[in-house]
Amino acid sequence: MLFANFGAWCQNSRMAGTLYVVSTPIGNLEDLTYRAVRVLSEVDIVACEDTRHSQKLLHHYGIKTKTVSYHEHNERDRAGELLASIKSGLDVAVVSDAGTPGISDPGFRVVRMALEAGLQVVPIPGPTALVSALVASGLPSDEFFFAGFLPARSGARRSRLADLVAIPSTLVFYEAPHRLVASLVDVREILGEREAVVARELTKLHEEIVRGRLSEIVSWFSQAGHEPRGEMVVVIDRKVIAGSDEETKSSESVASIVASFEAEGLDPRSALKKSARQLGISRDEAYRRLTAERSREKP
Ligand code: SAM
Questions:
Q1: Of these four, 127, 135, 137, 244, which has the most CB atoms within 10 Å of its CB?
Q2: pLDDT value, residue 3
Q3: Distance (Å) from CA 11 to ligand 1 centroid
Q4: pLDDT digits (tens, 9 = 90+) for 118-145
Q5: Could you tell me where the beta strands, DSSP code E, fall in 64-179?
Q6: What value, to the nearest 5°, has the Cα angle with vertex 212 and ends 224 and 234?
Q7: Cα(175) to centroid(ligand 1), Å
Q8: What is the pLDDT at residue 248?
Q9: CA distances (Å), 30 to each of 26, 231, 239, in order?
Q10: 130-241 homologous superfamily
Q11: Helices in 43-128 by DSSP H: which ranges?
């Protein structure tokens, strides 16, 4: 149990140090807060995903704190060593290469272990690419779902997307440039035509925010000279565009056609396949609409 050790927390918090989770810039070195500079200067150890990478930032601000590596390959062992240091009274800051530790980056494990050991964890807020992309996207930001990186292989990616069909929130993904077009094609196929945004190289020299329908963004990045480059965040609207192909191919309810085939004795898989053929749409598209219809039917 995470907080069962309340006694240990009271005891430790009197003598132990603190674990700071410090957000750092996602490109522009000016995006480090005054508080982050102070904390990184005052702690005893800065645990970095890549010490050489973070040294550039520390050097820029004249911070001379000792650094150690803390990355996905040594996370488990190093987290134990860092906790031992904190228990002995040292303060430790954890940073990743860019943005907020724990957001598609190492950080979660050491935070979890520190809490289990009854130690104090303090966040030092700052940049994270997903929030910058979301707030500049112009898509609804009151409710959103961050899905991290989609799977690299199309089959796994499409099945992950099928899980997201019924989520009635703006969707945010991280994506690698060489997979962007293939991913957006799958997104359009499984989630339907939607408004979307690709926010590229945020806070950097070549920052670019491309807005449009999924099909328009796919054709933009498929043109010679527009090949996707750099780091990017994909933001997808919560709803299918009314009147787009997906909506107009048929106004018939997929659920009712599937139900009629099931009533004739077909198993759910075959019923879906036959319904898709009847509607002239792909099985994935039929599945997307079926899931969406069923989620709308839920009270
Ligand atoms: N911890 C980071 C954060 O808080 O955003 C994310 C780290 S994750 C390993 C790296 C991914 O974040 C990139 O592949 C890209 O999708 C996104 N990203 C990071 N910096 C970015 C930037 N400047 N512009 C757009 N996307 C960025």
A1: 137
A2: 53
A3: 38
A4: 999 999 999 999 999 999 999 999 999 9
A5: 66-69, 92-95, 120-124, 144-149, 170-175
A6: 85
A7: 9
A8: 46
A9: 10, 18, 36
A10: Tetrapyrrole methylase, C-terminal domain (3.30.950.10)
A11: 51-60, 75-87, 108-116
If you average pLDDT over residues 63-73, what whole number do you get? 95
CATH annotation of 6-126: 3.40.1010.10
**Ligand 1 center from residue 213 Cα (angstroms):** 23
CA of 99 relative to ligand 1 center, distance in Å: 7
Instruction: Pick the closest to residue 241 from 292, 196, 271, 207 (CA basis).
Output: 196
Query: What's residue 281's pLDDT?
Result: 75
Q: How confident is the model at residue 7 (pLDDT cuts 50, 70, 90)?
A: low
How far apart (Å, rounded) are the C-alpha atoms in residues 280 and 102?
44
pLDDT tens profile 150-171:
999 999 999 999 999 999 999 9
Which helix or strand (DSSP H or E) is residue 101 part of? Answer: none
Is ligand 1 within 6 A of the CB of residue 235? no
**What pTM was estimated for this model as a whole?**
0.81
* CB of 202 sitting under 6 A from ligand 1: yes
Q: From CA 273, how far away is CA 75, in angstroms rounded?
A: 45
Q: Say if ligand 1 is within 6 A of residue 199 CB.
A: yes
Share of the chain above pLDDT 70, in %: 90
Question: Strand pairing of 120-124 and 144-149?
Answer: unpaired
Is-contact 93 68, C-beta < 8 A?
no
Distance, CA 72 to ligand 1 centroid (Å)? 16
Q: In angstroms, what is the span from residue 88 Cα to ligand 1's centroid?
A: 34
Ligand 1 atom nearest the C-alpha of 27 is: 23
* Mean pLDDT taken over the chain: 90
Cβ of 104 closer than 6 Å to ligand 1, yes or no, is yes
**Ligand 1 in reach of 55 Cβ (< 6 A):** no
Alpha-carbon distance of 144 to 166, in angstroms, equals: 13
